[in-house]
Amino acid sequence: MSNAVSDFLFFGAVLSLLSYELGLRLKKRFKWAVFNPLFISICIVMAFLYVFHIDYEVYNKSAKYISYLLTPATICLAIPLYRQLELLRKHSKAIVAGTLTGVFTTMVTVLLLALVFGLNHQEYVTFLPKSITTAIAMGISEEMKGYVTITVASIIITGIQGSIIAETVCRIFKITEPIAKGIAIGSAAHAVGTTKAMEMGEIEGAMSSLAIATSGLCTVLFASVFSNFL
């Protein structure tokens, strides 16, 4: 099967897009948070490759073209932010404080869990950038000699979990302020969480988009400090 699909230049891209489309349809029909389109598509792709004994390298060779769209898609997140520029100026102090708090909490949580589970230094720094966008996190993990592939996996898992539980957490803790919701989701669950924030409202989406950029910059600074703690 690997030999057959390797001749199809866009096999991986087609499989990924069809899987994601199925995830969207399931989410639209059942309205359950667990039916996250990204999570569904990952499960489908993994199952397909396993059942038909297709090597990951074969899949990735034809799926990598989708990655080229990551940068322009991230840049597009600036559009809702621009629309809420006045709101950004008005609440700049609260936004900065919220983002810094989110990044600091992530760092402390990773440190505590590393101590509890007895992780070594390389394993510890691998998870420090788990809550920021992949492009920045990979650079941080590589610079600190972490396991880059595990960093990417942790980023995906973090984003999916954040997207699934975001509304529930806000409801449990009675968080109703759109700015607070957006900053919390963006600083904890990066771009995947931001898609959920956009579903919740334009302000939430704009603030979450802002948190992606600011959290990434703050993590670059904080990670270099926290990496010395273990």
From TrEMBL:
The keyword GTP-binding does not apply. The keyword Hydrolase does not apply. It is a multi-pass membrane protein. It is found in: Membrane. The chain crosses the membrane at residues 6-22, 34-53, 65-82, 94-119, 147-166, 206-226. GO terms for cellular component: membrane. InterPro entries: CidB/LrgB (IPR007300). Keywords: Membrane, Transmembrane, Transmembrane helix. It holds the Pfam family LrgB. This is LrgB family protein.
